[in-house]
Amino acid sequence: MAVLLQILDGVKSYGDQNLLDNASATIHDGMKVGFIGRNGAGKSTLLRVLLGDEELDSGEVVRGTHLQVGYLRQHDPFNPGESALEFLMRDSGQPDWKCGEVAGQFELKGDYLNGPVKDLSGGWQTRVKLAALLLHEPNLLMLDEPTNFLDLRTQILLEHFLVNFTASCLIVSHDRAFLTATCDQTLDLNRGKLTLYPGKITPYLEKIEEDKIRDQRTNAAVISKQKQLQKFIDKNKARATSASQARSKQKQLDRLQTKEIEVDLPTASIKAPVVEPRQGPALICMDLAIGYDGVAVASDIEIEVEHQQRAAIVGDNGQGKTTLLRTIVDSLKPVSGKVKWGYGCKIGTYAQHVYTTLPQEQTVLEYLEYTSMPGITTQDCLNVAGSLLFKGAHVNKPIKVLSGGERARLCMAGLLLGDYNILILDEPGNHLDVETVESLANALLKYKGTVIFTSHDRHFVQRVATNVIEVRDGGARNYGGNYEAYLYMVNKEITEGERERAGNKLAAPPAEKTSGGAKAALSGKDQHNARKQQRNLEKTIARLDGQKKEMNAEMLKTSDAKKAMDLHNQINAIQVELSEAEEKWCELSQELGDW
User: What angle do CA 496, 498, 502 make, to 5 degrees?
Assistant: First the structure.
């Protein structure tokens, strides 16, 4: 495979922070690479270096002669009053039919395609940007946290697109589920070094942990042997009869070396408030309508949340998830109907409209001491502050100089130090790194109160949610199944939409064949790309079929009902992918004239 992009012995520093330390890695044609590393490790810096926006202090970036990069930038590229279709035509230089065809892959049609693009939500604007990238026909897509702020449906659409994308990808993400679905190799930036692992993220992380445990065991055995040898040497080196043996043992001892094991980087250790568990309804919404200025965005809402449940509010962006949260905490008045909380509910809220109104003159530590429950010590406040990245002199910063992300984390720290038995969390993971989000999930699993939350992080929702409230099509309801079932339903809807689009293409009048047969309808380059995609699909079908057989065998053996249900959901999800891959393979075979 030809080299697309390569970094050789890269060095890059900011002040005393060494982000790249003789880092090297190579991306070839067709590789789909998930790029991981802690916040602040230097991932975004490396992307800017690879794009040519920044220079290395030393080292080299090698770009293949055929490299065509598509980079999803975060800035707003749209002109005032411009429609999505007009932007796509202007940005790509492609005709309207081509732009409309590519936009359709991201469900951009009707008002979403022809209305003002600046009126669309952030998630829909991201779909427009992705369509624009595809129209430039890049052979390397570079995506920096592409799932941030995307709703579930857009995340899954993006996943499906990347799975079927035949060129290379380099994707920075904290979303392990997303990387597992889209990338077959893993690039890790850790302490300035790059490691490229030829496998998915979960096996890589497991390997790192296994290697560490093996090295610890090896070191323990080496240290034990060193002690034995040293004891023999000390006992026999002065004796004439055994001095030569002692010298031989000394040579053995000199050859024994322990392996250097990296000390773990600091990780968050979040503890949820300790509260008295309660029973019965915590929240009841009766004939509720929510919206702004008397105009309802959702109505006829009849939902109930029990004490100790952890209810995830789900739905596409713009449907009213945050509006519902704001209404139930009374920061937004209902258009009509009632919101009723149970007796003794003490509500703590984490949302943007809360952390933008924090007391400006208080320091971080003063705010935490002020908001904490009785009995919490200054050291407890410092521990929680440290777990949310406020360390050393940072705890004495006044709130007025904090960034938006720092204020969000401070608000979270204040909640965790309180005695709230109801937690309302609007996108709690947006400003936290993956380790801190994992720690927060662990804390919420042990929490005896009630949690009502929104999140775009599927892994977090899967771990935390006990039930699901769906906001959709002008209403909200308690969803009948768990989050796994909800994911399956959304995947199915998207897959059926993709099949419908594919069916429409197949139903179009066939192009007139040349005398050379069906294969002549494709150019040599198109044939080559189609054959390559067909081979990739054959590998995918074989892999998915193997996974399905293994899970079926495991389900037949298990007597654990929960595990059996989990396996059933996973098998269903694999079947959806398998059917999609088989259908695509058939389409390619028809296009190539195989049958």
Answer: 115
Does position 424 have pLDDT exceeding 90, yes or no? yes
pTM: 0.68
Max Cα separation, the chain? 101
Query: Per the structure block, which two tokens stand in for 527?
Result: 């044939």
Instruction: Tell the residue number behind the tokens 């197949």, with chain if given.
Output: 506
CA separation for the pair 234, 239 (Å, rounded):
10
The whole-angstrom separation of Cα 364 and Cα 379 is 13
Average pLDDT in the chain: 84
| CA proximity to 334, closest of 369, 381, 287 | 287
Give residue for tokens 């909200």. Answer: 476
Q: Is 509 exposed, middle or buried (0-12, 13-18, 19+ CB in 10 A)?
A: exposed
**Which of these, 35, 46, 26, lies nearest to 146 by C-alpha position?**
35
Confidence of residue 559 (pLDDT cuts 50, 70, 90): low
Length of the chain: 595
Residue 217's pLDDT band (boundaries 50, 70, 90)? confident
Residue from 35, 291, 324, 321 nearest 153 by CA: 321
Q: Which residues of 428-464 are buried (b: 16+ CB within 10 A; e: fewer)?
A: bbbbbbbbbbbbbbbbbeebebbbbbbbbbbbbbebb
Cβ 489 vs Cβ 505: under 8 Å: no
Q: Establish whether domains 3-199 and 281-484 are of one fold.
A: yes
Which superfamily, per CATH, for 281-484?
A: P-loop containing nucleotide triphosphate hydrolases (3.40.50.300)
Element (H, E) at 303: strand 295-306
Buried b (16+ CB within 10 A) or exposed e, 549-575: eebeeebeeeeeeeeeebbebbbebbe
Domain coordinates in residue numbering, the chain: 3-199, 205-255, 281-484
pLDDT at residue 185 greater than cutoff 90? yes
CB count, 10 Å around CB of 11? Answer: 15
The three-class DSSP label of residue 57 is coil
* DSSP designation for 242: T
Nearest to 43 by CA among 129, 170, 225, 162: 170
Compute the distance between CA of residue 459 and CA of residue 463 in angstroms, rounded to an integer. 6
Question: DSSP secondary structure string, 93-157?
Answer: ---HHHHHHHHHTTT--THHHHSBGGGS-HHHHHHHHHHHHHHT--SEEEEESTTTT--HHHHHH
Name which of 437, 493, 436 is nearest 463 in CA terms: 437
Q: Where are the alpha helices (DSSP H) in 388-481?
A: 404-416, 434-446, 458-464
Q: Give the pLDDT confidence of 241-287 residue by residue, as tens digits.
A: 788 888 888 888 888 887 776 655 556 677 788 889 999 999 999 99
Q: Tokens 């099509």 identify what position?
A: 473
Top CATH class, 3-199:
alpha beta
Among candidate residues 157, 167, 166, the one with its CA nearest the CA of residue 131: 157
Residue 518 has pLDDT above 50, yes or no: no
Report which secondary-structure segment, H or E, holds 402. Answer: none
Q: Mean per-residue pLDDT for 151-159? A: 85
